């Protein structure tokens, strides 16, 4: 199995098919390697509802304890609940989940104390090297004194911390439909929302890592259909959809229409700036809507543009001391949550904003949804570099047009912009376009696609 580690150790996490690509014996080695690389004397672990998760998490704990580290197991949890435990307990952490991937997959998201991310450049490559060596030559020498493994329930403390970060005192009664997708939202939502003046309509709250109803990936519009229908049937004020490990949250308005994550980013940014006296830096990746930096500036803040991906967002948040960060993929990062992402905290902000006034959600977010966007369009290409070069050649030198290569190629004009990024894992180019109106966006989108697809 050692030869397959290159397939499962990704840029920011471990992820692969169980037991074909990895199993409990490898998980035990990952636990030992995590302790060796971090030098930790104590760690915290948690896991999602996938059938393989308890066994993998337990094996990891055994490996870590054998190297002398005390292990606090928090058991079933969302990924942001594990980040909470890592931050509140000031311990390195390991979360066993494959997020929105199909049931046969599982993985590990690792962090240092205070929920600081572990990726290829921050320890994951060394962890992989150790596991590969040990899987060929045998388990490492155990410590003279093994660590203790104990259990701890953090759900109530996690919920209390989130609620301390949002003023929920003036929320009016709301009817909210929540689609947990049989994922960890079914575990966390009842506790986090307890005591709020909400009529909660639960969908797929049963923890089931085989995902019997639909994939736990709300980024795919097909997986929002059930929620949209139910919001309309129930005449609800809004709908919320969580992914499998419940660290991302998607919002549906009272008409059953999806709310752009860029609009949610702008809404939460305005509220976080208000909490901080109208001052602070807000991070946004380069394919969020133009409305995000506009709203940040209008509310006294400083927008900072970064590449796509949580490692870039978190690094820039740490560098700038940013109060908040958001991505088009519905990842939301908070300084007061150890710079980690938590869709649940974003959901509480939406409930507070909607519940603090009498209007509808669609009317509320219209202020933050100012442009026409294409969404992400993937094209399979033979030569990514050649296609990017063709786009650059087509637009370079055009009057009023600027190009930059922060992440792929971004082409910007006064009334529109588009970005084309190569996939790191597939022969794809990803196009995102935005303009002041739908007709202009369609024109820009179609011209770019014609060049991309040759």
From TrEMBL:
Required co-factor(s) are: Mg(2+)
Gene3D superfamilies in UniProt: Alpha-D-Glucose-1,6-Bisphosphate, subunit A, domain 3 (3.40.120.10), Alpha-D-phosphohexomutase, C-terminal domain (3.30.310.50)
One family name in Pfam for this protein: PGM_PMM_II
Annotated keywords: Isomerase, Magnesium, Metal-binding, Phosphoprotein
The cross-references to CDD domains, in alphabetical order and at most eight, read: PMM_PGM (cd03089)
Q: Highest taxon of the source?
A: Bacteria
Q: Which GO terms describe its biological process?
A: carbohydrate metabolic process
| Domain Alpha-D-phosphohexomutase C-terminal: start-end pairs | 376-448
Q: Which InterPro entries match?
A: A-D-PHexomutase_a/b/a-I, A-D-PHexomutase_a/b/a-I/II/III, A-D-PHexomutase_a/b/a-II, A-D-PHexomutase_a/b/a-III, A-D-PHexomutase_C, A-D-PHexomutase_C_sf, Alpha-D-phosphohexomutase_SF
Enzyme Commission number: 5.4.2.8
- Provide a Gene Ontology MF annotation, just one: metal ion binding
Q: Which residues form the Alpha-D-phosphohexomutase alpha/beta/alpha domain?
A: 7-135, 156-256, 263-371
For this chain, the family text in UniProt reads: Belongs to the phosphohexose mutase family.
Q: Which PANTHER family does the protein's record reference?
A: PHOSPHOMANNOMUTASE
- Write down what this protein is called: Phosphomannomutase
Q: Which organism is it from?
A: Streptomyces griseomycini
